[in-house]
Hints:
single chain
Amino acid sequence: xxxxxxxxxxxxxxxxxxxxxxxxxxxxxxxxxxxxxxxxxxxxxxxxxxxxxxxxxxxxxxxxxxxxxxxxxxxxxxxxxxxxxxxxxxxxxxxxxxxxxxxxxxxxxxxxxxxxxxxxxxxxxxxxxxxxxxxxxxxxxxxxxxxxxxxxxxxxxxxxxxxxxxxxxxxxxxxxxxxxxxxxxxxxxxxxxxxxxxxxxxxxxxxxxxxxxxxxxxxxxxxxxxxxxxxxxxxxxxxxxxxxxxxxxxxxxxxxxxxxxxxxxxxxxxxxxxxxxxxxxxxxx
Length: 285
């Protein structure tokens, strides 16, 4: 089995629609795909309707969190999307995205960059607007050569010249909410130092004690030494180890299935989840 548990669609900041995403996943030879858009489950119904036969969908979301001033992401798998407490928190985070984007645009304007809300809104389409959409606007304007080049201290990285904070959930609260909705909590790309400051291992130890299920180890933003260190930490703490592409379509260079999760780990995730179950494809494509 080939299992990719971290992907994004146009429901947040990916460039594939949910329909295109599942069709591309099947074409890439995947058996299981996780749809984990930022702070939203809006793409799930479309993905399920289009799900090709032979491909299984794991529903999820990537929750925006912050601890001690450090931004981090928590992958939530197979939770009840209508559970009131987690739903309210997702809406709170999502509703703060528009004023945050407008704040970044204002800072960029002060820096002499003629980006507009209309441009960013067009790029975001129906998705939850976020930094990658602002970054894409900078690419369109020729300010930076790629989306990744916008995530530097000069521009949109945490603490950068055009950075604006948004509401983000405390990770311990996120774990509690995910568990309360019957889901499984996995810390996304915990060693992605190129994105800014990373959460110290001591905090991961505390999260494990609070019910964290796993950490994403095999990821494009982790070099071999980081993967080895995280794998050792996961073993020490009894955490599940996942691997995923973090696919965003054309917004990133990584391909679907470039990094995958072991089938035994996938099986354990499905055993722990009580809020929702994987959806087998019925040939919708």
